[in-house]
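INTERNAL AUDIT FORM
Audit reference: QA-55
Scope: verify that the stored structure record matches its stored sequence.
Auditor: D.O.
Record contents follow.
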Amino acid sequence: MNQAGQIIPFTTSGSLVDYVDRKVIVVLRDGKKLIGILRSFDQFANLMLQYTIERIYVDDMFGDIDRGVFIVRGENVVLLGELDLDKEYEMEKGLRRVPAEHLFPLSKGRSDEKRKTLREKTKKLNTVGFSVDFGHDDLY
C-alpha cells in the first residue's frame, strides 16, 4: 500500500505468488506452449513447473508431450496465465486429440512458412530504410 492506503499492484516477478501451486500455461519466445503446475520461481521469473506437458496445436488438432519437471528461464517467457480447468475441458471438446508425433511435420511446415513470410517482409522493410531487430527465436 502507498501512503494514501491504495493497493499498488506488483509489476515484478513477485506478482507470480498467486500462481504458485496452480495449473498454468506458459508461452515461450519460440512459440512452445507448456502446461503444468507452477511450483517455484525466483526474482528473474525463472519458473519451475511440475507435471508439465508441451501442447502442440495445428488447425483443429492438438497433441501433448509429457515433459515432467521443467525449468524455464524467465527471459524466454512471453505469457503466463492460470488455466481455468472447466474452460480447458470445453476448449478441448472442439479439437481433435492426436498423437503429437503426427503433428510434428505439420507444425514444422507452418513454422517454415512463417519464417519465409517474415524474411520477405523484412526484405521489403529494409528496402525502404527500416531496420528489423529480432532473433531467430523471436517468432511468437
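Auditor finding: record pair retrieved intact. The helical segments are 85-93, 100-127.
Action required: none
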